[in-house]
């Protein structure tokens, strides 16, 4: 790992540092954002409305954002995304009631939609073919480690700031502001332009947003396969909000069991990420994705029929989608996102990756609709259906679609370095 790290492009190391700082600072308040909103007067319906609004905003923004990425380059859009997170922290720190959080939640969802895909896009661009999955796995490990101690630091800060209240949580956002500004400065000063991203193609300059996407759809045969695959993956949102409820209400898990499952899930992901990245570069991303994705299915089945808490813990280690809030997190199976990310960006040439990501982002609307459907089915008593339906969708739609995708990118994309 260390010899590989030394040989990595400087731009990759800049991303590790800047996103690492951002991950640490965002981790301070991530588990307190909703609680903060309730202290400012929001009720559960308000919270649900805020989340839906944020998801819809990121979905609709994804299409123009994808065009902006290809038009102006990943670096400028990455700075823009981190700037949105900075503005979000400012709004949270100054909020006097929950209504003032509405623009912050919208900006936060849009900003995070930009940051992670752009970071992956740049990593793929600056890393040689055959080493990209391992490079992405290193980024996930470092970014996760950087945020591991955030909850502990946040708890200390809240204790010294007056306890669990709006005024006790508010200082967390004051810390986020300079940390986000530091991330911007690192990208601005140290992240060099990509040769392929420094200037947009002359053809793209002459096209408007609609024409450019029309051209992309007509020219990229793999795009429709990716749209189907990502749509199937987004359908997992039907069960995500209800897996903790299932564990507690049906399987009798308490906060200690949930905490243990979460901890072991993250640790298992951290331990397996780099081996998965190396294996993906060695035998192919598609094989590794399908192999480790199947562990999520096993974890879901164990979750559904677990006779005791030990089986619940094993299910969490194998992979529960409810624990996949962070990229690649969610047990051993959750790390299958690493070869998938590599496959996706290698399927498109550098000047088209932004727009491809933009179209995929539009599919986030499926997540919102799936979560609504899950709530209806859950209230009707079809709890097992809510848990198992996305698994069936994966097997019938996602797996056959991924199988049809080529294992390797075109020669032009694999040899660009």
Structure description:
This protein is mainly alpha-helical and 417 residues long. Helices cover 77% and strands 0% of the residues. The protein has helices spanning 2-6, 10-29, 33-39, 44-72, 74-94, 102-126, 132-148, 150-160, 166-190, 202-206, 209-219, 223-234, 243-250, 255-283, 285-305, 309-318, 331-334, 337-346, 353-362, 364-379, 383-404, 411-414. Helix 4 packs antiparallel against helix 20 (364-379). Mean pLDDT is 79; it is low at 195-200, 322-329 and 411-417.
Keywords:
mainly alpha, 77% helix, 22 helices, 417 residues
Outline of this structure?
It is built from 22 helices and no strands. It is globular, with a radius of gyration of 21 Å.
Helix-strand category = mainly alpha
The proportion of strand residues reads: under 5%
Element-level helix/strand string: HHHHHHHHHHHHHHHHHHHHHH
The N- and C-terminal alpha carbons lie at a distance of: 21 Å
Describe the main β-sheet briefly. Answer: none
**What's the overall geometry?**
globular
**Unreliable segments (pLDDT under 50, ≥5 consecutive)?**
195-200, 322-329, 411-417
Count of individual helical segments: 22
State the helical fraction: over 70%
Count all strands and give the number: 0
Radius of gyration: 21 Å
Query: Average pLDDT across residues?
Result: 79
């Amino acid at each position: 790992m260390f010899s590989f790290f030394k040989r990595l492009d400087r731009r990759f190391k800049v991303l590790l540092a800047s996103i690492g700082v951002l991950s640490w600072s965002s981790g301070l308040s991530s588990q307190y954002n909703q609680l903060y909103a309730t202290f400012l007067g929001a009720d559960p319906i308000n919270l649900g409305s805020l989340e839906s609004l944020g998801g819809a905003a990121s979905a609709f923004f994804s299409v123009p954002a994808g065009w902006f990425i290809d038009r102006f380059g990943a670096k400028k859009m990455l700075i823009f995304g981190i700037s949105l997170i900075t503005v979000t922290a400012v709004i949270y720190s100054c909020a006097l009631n929950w209504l003032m959080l509405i623009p912050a939640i919208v900006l936060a969802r849009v900003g995070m939609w930009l940051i992670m895909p752009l970071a992956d896009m740049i990593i793929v661009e600056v890393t040689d073919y055959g080493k990209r999955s391992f490079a992405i796995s290193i980024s996930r490990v470092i970014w996760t480690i950087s945020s591991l101690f955030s909850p502990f630091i946040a708890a200390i800060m809240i204790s010294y700031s007056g306890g669990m209240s709006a005024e006790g949580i508010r200082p967390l956002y004051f810390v986020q502001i300079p940390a986000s500004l530091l991330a911007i400065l690192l990208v601005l000063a140290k992240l060099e332009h990509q040769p392929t991203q420094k200037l947009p193609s002359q053809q793209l300059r002459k096209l408007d947003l609609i024409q450019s996407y029309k051209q992309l759809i007509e020219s990229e045969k793999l795009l429709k396969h990716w749209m189907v695959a990502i749509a199937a993956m987004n359908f997992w949102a039907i069960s995500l909000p209800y897996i903790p409820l299932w564990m507690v209400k049906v399987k009798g898990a308490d906060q200690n069991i949930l905490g243990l499952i979460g901890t072991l899930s993250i640790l298992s992901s951290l331990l397996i990420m780099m081996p998965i990245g190396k294996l993906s570069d060695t035998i192919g991303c598609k094989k590794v994705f399908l192999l480790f994705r199947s562990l999520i299915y096993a974890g879901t089945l164990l979750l559904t029929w677990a006779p005791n808490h030990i089986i619940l813990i094993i299910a969490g280690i194998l992979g529960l989608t409810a624990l996949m809030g962070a990229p690649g997190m969610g047990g051993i199976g959750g790390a299958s996102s690493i070869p998938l990310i590599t496959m996706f960006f290698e399927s498109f040439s550098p000047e088209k990756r932004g727009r491809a990501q933009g179209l995929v982002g539009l599919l986030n609307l499926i997540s919102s609709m799936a979560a609504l459907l899950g709530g209806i089915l859950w209230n009707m008593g079809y709890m097992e259906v809510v848990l198992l339906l996305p698994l069936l969708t994966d097997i019938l739609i996602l797996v056959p679609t991924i199988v049809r995708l080529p294992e390797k990118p075109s020669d032009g994309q694999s040899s660009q370095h």
